[in-house]
Specification:
The protein has 24 helices and 16 strands. It has 583 residues and is an alpha/beta fold. The longest helix is centred in the first third of the chain and has 24 residues.
Length: 583
């Protein structure tokens, strides 16, 4: 068989080499047929039994979680259990059986497809990728209905039992990943998925090379094919020539040596050669992510995306997390960090809010009722979140981070609501930190260009580079037709970044970067040269960035960065960046 290469989305770094192990999708085996009136209740019962069986499966997986399993696994299994209990999954397909006389599999698939279509309309990429969780839960139920064979059945047929296994699937759930954890599981490839899918997050936490969004990889790759996953590039090479295989083995060995070397830096302070101390913080989605952040040496949480607490509740306004539910999660995070600061971003959600029953969808969701705009339009929901965060602040240092502020009145209105929340807690004799710091995400050009509005009213700033670049260049980076125009090194982006950092320093308030740029080692020296002293990133990126900091000398970097900021042509900027990285 001739070698070929596939390109997808890199979600977990590293190189994996092994034999392909294919997982069949139960959805492909589903038969569609109509049932008679007399068969309806029997078919309803069959689906209910399958759902109950999957509940038991998930409980069993949860009970058998190894003590050293990443915290994300348990949390995502909980999310899948919640989705399974949701009436949209547990009841609506039963109605379809009764009203349309579809067989159980067809009714379930119909409902999953309808829910998936609703998620496709969501602008926010993180929320849009929650569609995969619904599909994964549906897949588990279908496997029970269709009596699919064990997903590990093909392993014994491998012609080389010593080879590592590369799992190739249309999709794979975090719970299913546990089946492979104790085997020679080196990496995985899926047709579906994105950068923020739960499976991708678990892969990063397990430190397993992975590539997702490969479209039809599961159809093109055959059982037992030799496969290379280049997790840094999102590239998969199938049946590589011997010379390519050897090159990747050498590269893999080199990367393993580098990782081992990096692990020695966990307790080393992040200080530049000239003695400047840099703060390295972690971005998390769940309170259970905190141990990984501590393990990586983070000195705090720079971004806790609270959106996750609102996930798995799509379509049910009456099932928003309660104030107490939120309080417990925030308290768990701040307690886990043992006195280190935790920055909690208030709900950052789009106009297409999946937990809202509204049918209307904004024409331009990215420019519509999202983030703080949405929170201010839903004061009851926002006040509950503010009270929950304030209550958790009694258990450790917490900072409040507000997304997408642009106008002075938005800042003032938000600060007023925070004061109202404090007043309500005082009346209820609830403890909280009365001096809790409040900061703003700088993620749209208007905010970056009107910084005095923010500096006069707030305690700190955090630059969300992903959105700042998107809005500055008018580019949706997940739109493959324009993604090539997304450029962190565009002169306009560099100007906004450098002026924001400089304005924060002038005003005497801390500025951090919590977007993808903070975790990109190719940009570490540039950000240091601009004056950035706080970086927040995924824990897996932290040690690499720290190493770059330890090798940096501000006396050399700062003048070279100033030169870059005066350049306008892309080629000149790229050339100067190469010189900066080699300085």
């Amino acid at each position: 068989m001739a070698s070929f290469t596939l390109h997808g989305i890199p979600v977990s770094r590293g190189i994996a080499i092994g034999r392909a192990h294919l997982l069949a999708s139960a959805a492909l085996d589903v038969k569609h047929y109509l049932i008679s009136e007399e068969q309806v209740e029997a078919e309803v019962q069959r689906l209910q039994n399958a759902i109950a069986a999957v509940h038991q499966e998930l409980q069993a997986v949860w009970r058998e979680l190894p003590p050293d399993a990443p915290a994300e696994l348990g949390a995502f299994i909980d999310v899948h259990a919640l989705i399974l209990s949701d009436p949209m999954i547990s009841e609506m397909p039963l109605d379809i059986i009764r009203s349309r006389h579809y067989n159980a599999e067809w009714a379930l698939l119909t409902q999953i497809d309808e829910l998936s279509a609703q998620f496709d309309e969501i602008e926010d990429t993180y929320l849009r990728e929650r569609k995969n969780d619904i599909q994964q839960v549906g897949e588990r139920v279908l496997k029970v209905l269709t009596g699919s064979a064990s997903t590990l059945s093909g392993l014994a047929s491998s012609p080389d039992s010593t080879a590592h296994m590369i799992v190739v699937a249309h999709d794979i759930s975090p719970a299913d990943m546990l089946q492979f954890r104790d085997r020679a599981f080196a990496g995985f490839i899926t047709d579906l998925g994105g950068q923020n899918s739960h499976t991708a997050i678990v892969a990063r936490s397990l430190d397993i090379p992975a590539a997702v969004g490969m479209y039809n990889a599961s159809a093109l790759i055959a059982q037992d094919d030799w496969v290379i996953i280049d997790g840094d590039a999102g590239v998969v090479i199938v049946d590589p020539p011997p010379v390519v295989l050897e090159q990747y083995r050498e590269r893999q060995a080199r990367m393993l040596r580098e990782r081992k070397k990096l692990s020695k830096l966990k307790k080393t302070p992040a200080i530049t050669r000239d003695g400047t101390e840099i703060t390295l913080l972690a971005n998390i989605e769940l309170p259970q992510d905190c141990p990984a952040a501590l393990e990586a040496g983070a000195t705090g949480i720079g971004l806790f995306r609270s959106e996750f607490l609102f996930m798995g509740r799509a379509g049910y306004a009456n099932r928003l997390p309660t104030e107490d539910e939120q309080f417990e999660s925030y308290k768990m995070a701040v307690t886990a960090m043992k006195g280190r600061p935790v920055t909690i971003r208030t709900l950052d959600i789009g106009a297409d809010k999946p937990m809202d029953n509204a049918e209307e969808t904004a024409l331009n969701p990215a420019l519509g009722l999202r983030a703080i705009r949405y929170c201010l339009a839903e004061p009851q929901m926002f006040m509950a979140q503010l009270r929950a965060i304030l209550r958790a602040s009694a258990f450790g240092p917490i900072k409040l981070l507000i997304p997408m502020l642009a106008h002075a009145f938005e800042i003032d209105q938000t600060l007023n609501m925070i004061e109202q929340a404090k007043g309500q807690l005082r009346e209820a004799n609830r403890k909280f930190d009365p001096l809790i710091q409040v900061g703003a995400m700088i993620e749209i050009p208007a905010a970056a260009l009107a910084l005095p509005l923010f500096a006069q009213r707030l305690d700190f700033l955090s630059i969300g580079t992903n959105d700042l670049i998107q809005y500055t260049l008018a580019v949706d980076r997940v739109d493959h037709e324009v993604a090539h125009l997304y450029n962190p090194l565009h002169p306009a982006v560099l100007f906004l970044l450098s002026t924001t950092i400089a304005a924060g320093a002038k005003a005497g308030i801390p500025v951090s970067v919590c977007g993808e740029m903070a975790g990109d080692t190719k940009l570490t020296r540039l950000l240091l040269g601009m004056g950035l002293r706080e970086f927040s990133m995924h824990p897996a990126q932290l040690l690499s960035v720290k190493q770059e900091i330890l090798n940096s000398d501000l006396a050399v970097i700062v003048p070279r960065t100033r030169k870059i900021l005066r350049l306008m042509e892309a080629n000149a900027i790229n050339e100067a960046m190469e010189q900066l990285r080699s300085a």
